[in-house]
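Our consortium's second objective concerns turning raw sequence data into structural hypotheses that experimental partners can test. To show how far this objective has progressed, the report includes one record in full. It was chosen at random from the queue rather than selected for favorable results. The single chain below, 347 residues long, was entered without modification.
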Amino acid sequence: MFEDLETDILAGLGLGRFRDPSSIVEEVIEERENPKKGIEAPWSKLHGLFELPQQGITLFGGYSGHSKSTVINQWALAAANSGHKVAIASLELTNAHLYEMLASQASCVESPPKSYLKEFAAWADQKLFVVDSHDVIRPDEVIELVKDSKRLLGCSLFILDCLFQVDLGGELEDEKRFFQQLAATARDYETAVVVVHHCRKPSGPEGESKPPAKESFIGSSHLVNAAAAVVVLHEDKKKLMAKNAGEPVDDQYGDFSLSVLKSRFMPWEGRVSLYKHGSARLLTNSRTRQYKPIDVREGMECQSEKHPSGESAPAATLNGSGKSETLDSMRKIDGTSTSMVSPLWPS
């Protein structure tokens, strides 16, 4: 009895907050046998090297106008296609603009027809969830959105685009406190949280031709410190301007570079080159600029629909040409199945 009393007293003094190593070893073995998987990248050249951690924040940044939102939405779409449920708080884009971008990325064409928009919606329901807000929101609202997306919808990925739309009062201490709370929420709810944020363009002759670094993020250094991963995107604007002017360009180097500057749970840090897709708002592995569209019709009843004649409806290209294309025509490039088209019913 006295021993129990002594244990209770010690626990009341704070002993319960300390653990012996022997009480942790089983957790280590469990994690080794059943490692927690992150959110895999849309590009095969990053597979095995980097994933969005599912128990922390990924700070995803770049200069203004360098396609940060486009690329993180491509990542969200790939996550949904691989079985994850995804919530997107796109606080700078309208719902319609966001949906148009996602549909373009899923179909691999710039402007898919109305028939595809409806089929994509049927595919995306219960996979992608859009936060219906485009105002500045409070930090506590963000925390609740992350929690609700996991406990009510089962989302394993939450995207906040962007940090400037969160009312932090202009104080670095408030920014630090918010990021600490957000990181704790991601850890406790085992959710991958991506925060899109702007980087400061450097002064001097190099300007934005120099890719961002960790210290380029606008605001407190605690943003980088609290993040489990830091990723920056950079577009080669000189190459873009030369290409738009009809001048020859060296296509051996990518149109974009994506750099992993910090990765707490995976050992790799480095940079990969990516290329802009020929028509859709997508980045691709190689200069062939091809990408695999999502088969939004897989498993849907409409696959067995018939024409009035009783014959099966043919697949049609998205660009309206008479030539039929199917997913069987995809080719392997850089380890990723790719195609410029997706099978659809004629619009």
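The partners drew two points from this record. The chain has one domain: 38-296. The mean pLDDT is 84. Both points have been shared with the crystallography group to help prioritize constructs.
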